[in-house]
């Protein structure tokens, strides 16, 4: 899940600890390693592209993120990747990439229809002929927000070595396709907790397909989990692979 609170430098240091490498990383890494040029939209701390370089990728890798704190950590770990501050509106794209990815449910941060359309048009412009766009978003039928309760505490180790506790709580929703939640970060070494509020959008299969078609993109594969299982009402994910429509 994308979290705007990580724009803070001290919280950005917690990101990889709270979002460790898992099956989703393996899924995307395989795609990245098979592409000569890759754009990672909403790259965060650059975990995916850093891993690709470490695994021997020698092509063009670009990470794009609007949070400077995240890119500071990305660049410090792997200066050999192009790290760009901003979003898909930052520049004009000209068919430069064989693969564009949006991982970690970053697509959920696009709350308005026009935001979605702008993003997908830019992705279409960034794709080279035959290129693919791959992104993941939670399946709304799985109702993931029902597990976002204060009783469920995640823990990470801060830069000072102390444990940071993270609690989530739904504040509004679902209202249509949107859910609003707060995340509270707390540590024994802090004078007060830090609280951020986010709104996330849960788009279903039909809505996603409609937006993609408007942008000239066609769904060629769609999975309900990281093992490439089919999409069902119980599937936790909607993992979509799209190509430019002929």
Helices and strands in order:
Blueprint: H1 9-12, H2 15-18, H3 23-33, E1 37-41, H4 47-54, E2 60-65, H5 68-77, E3 82-85, E4 97-102, H6 113-126, E5 127-138, E6 153-157, E7 163-175, E8 178-187, E9 194-201, H7 205-214, E10 217-223, E11 237-244
Parallel strand pairs: 1-2, 1-4, 2-3, 4-5
Antiparallel strand pairs: 5-11, 6-7, 7-8, 8-9, 10-11
Describe, in short, the structure shown.
It is built from seven helices and eleven strands. It has helices spanning 9-12, 15-18, 23-33, 47-54, 68-77, 113-126, 205-214, and strands spanning 37-41, 60-65, 82-85, 97-102, 127-138, 153-157, 163-175, 178-187, 194-201, 217-223, 237-244. Helix 4 (47-54) links the parallel strand 1 (37-41) and strand 2 (60-65).
Name the descriptors.
alpha/beta, disordered N terminus, Rossmann fold, 246 residues, globular, 4-stranded antiparallel beta sheet, 7-stranded mixed beta sheet
Write down the overall geometry: globular
Number of domains as seen in the coordinates: 2
Helix and strand run: HHHEHEHEEHEEEEEHEE
CATH top level assignment of the largest domain: Alpha Beta
């Amino acid at each position: 899940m994308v979290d705007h609170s990580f724009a803070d430098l001290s919280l950005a240091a917690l990101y990889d600890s709270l979002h460790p490498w898992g099956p989703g990383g393996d899924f995307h890494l395989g795609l990245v390693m098979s592409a000569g040029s890759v754009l990672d939209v909403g790259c965060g701390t650059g975990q995916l592209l850093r891993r690709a370089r470490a695994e021997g990728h020698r092509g063009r890798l670009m990470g794009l993120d609007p949070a400077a704190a995240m890119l500071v950590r990305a660049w410090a770990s792997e200066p050999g990747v192009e790290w760009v501050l901003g979003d898909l509106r930052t520049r004009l794209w000209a068919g430069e990439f064989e693969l564009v990815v949006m991982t970690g449910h970053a697509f959920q941060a696009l709350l308005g229809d026009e935001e979605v359309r702008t993003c997908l048009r830019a992705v279409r412009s960034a794709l080279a002929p035959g290129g693919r766009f791959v992104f993941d978003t939670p399946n709304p039928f799985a109702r993931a927000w029902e597990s976002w309760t204060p009783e469920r505490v995640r823990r990470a180790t801060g830069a000072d070595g102390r444990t940071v506790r993270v609690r989530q709580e739904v504040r509004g929703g679902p209202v249509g396709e949107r859910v609003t939640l707060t995340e509270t970060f707390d540590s024994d070494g802090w004078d007060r907790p830090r609280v951020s509020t986010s709104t996330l959008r849960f788009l279903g299969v039909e809505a996603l397909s409609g937006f993609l078609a408007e942008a000239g993109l066609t769904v060629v594969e769609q999975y309900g989990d990281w093992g490439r299982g089919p999409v069902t009402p119980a599937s936790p994910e909607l993992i979509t692979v799209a190509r430019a429509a002929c």
